[in-house]
From TrEMBL:
PANTHER family given in the database record: PROTEIN ALUMINUM SENSITIVE 3, UPF0014 INNER MEMBRANE PROTEIN YBBM-RELATED
GO cellular component, one term: plasma membrane
Family: Belongs to the UPF0014 family.
Subcellular location as annotated: Membrane
Protein name: ABC transporter permease
InterPro entries in UniProt: UPF0014_fam
Keyword entries, A-Z: Membrane, Transmembrane, Transmembrane helix
Membrane-protein topology: Multi-pass membrane protein
Species of origin: Psychrobacter urativorans
Length: 264
């Protein structure tokens, strides 16, 4: 590792290789306890290196050019991948789930990113890749987790509580009244990881973004301010995404006659 005059530590490929070798410890634990995760761990490690190295080259190229249409292509690809990842985490998928997931992920993430870029950070031009790509990436990564948790629990609840919901409908309850509690519980479930991280941030954990900035030599007070901003952006985006996802699923599970249906 090389130390600069500004106390920044520049990582070499040797440093990265040394850090990568630590995965051997995890592999040994998996083998000794017979966790059956050896193949998954190796694949995850290899994909981490390949994917991050590839995106590093892409970002370096995008940062050097700063063309708005190239930035939009990257943002679109990121959003599509996030929607697909959220959909794939749902065990009981139905036809149209990918569309619903994409709407929830893209709407929440794009709205919050626009607010961050135009109103909070006031980035000019708005498509400056140094800001918009990392911000959208942070928001998408957390939103897809929240949305997948909400979707998975709500769909499972609709299947498991079909008899209860139909009984409430037969007693003159509206569809929303019949499923209000499952929707509420699903949104809370999706929001739990975000809320938990907000409760302990700065006390138990230092988030990756803040840690990376400090290690790169940034002013700690500025790193803290950026982290506060991103935490609130993530919270708002996750809330919007979970709520929108729940409402879209709710729409799929009731027909025009206000009858419960189980789409496949």
């Amino acid at each position: 590792m090389n130390e600069t005059n500004e106390l920044q530590i520049l990582l070499t490929y040797t440093d990265v290789a040394l850090a990568s070798s630590l995965i051997i410890v995890v592999l040994l634990v998996s083998w000794r306890l017979r966790l059956g995760l050896t193949k998954t761990l190796l694949m995850a490690a290899v994909r981490t290196i390949i994917q991050l190295s590839f995106i590093g080259l892409i970002l370096a190229w995008i940062f050097a050019r700063e063309h708005w249409y190239e930035v939009l292509v990257i943002l679109t690809i990121m959003t599509l991948i996030a929607a697909g990842a959220a959909k794939n985490r749902v065990k009981r998928a139905y036809k149209g789930l990918l569309t619903d997931t994409f709407i929830a992920v893209s709407t929440s993430a794009i709205l919050v990113t626009i607010v961050a870029i135009l109103l909070i950070l006031q980035v000019k031009p708005w498509y400056t890749p140094q800001f918009i790509i990392p911000i959208l990436g942070l928001i998408l990564g957390n939103s897809l987790t929240a949305i997948s948790l909400t979707s998975n629990q709500l769909i499972n609840t609709f299947h498991e509580q079909q008899a209860r919901i139909e009984m409430m409908l037969s007693l003159s309850a509206t569809p929303y009244e019949a499923v209000h509690e499952p929707i509420r519980a699903a949104i809370i479930n999706g929001m739990t990881p975000t809320l938990n991280s907000m409760l302990v941030v700065g006390i138990v954990s230092l988030p990756g973004m803040m840690t990376g900035q400090i290690m790169a030599g940034a002013d700690p007070t500025q790193a803290v301010r950026y982290q506060i901003v991103t935490m609130f952006l993530i919270c708002v985006s996750s809330t919007l995404g979970c709520t929108l996802s729940a409402l879209l699923i709710y729409r799929r599970f009731f027909n025009r006659q206000q009858q419960l249906i189980l789409p496949s």
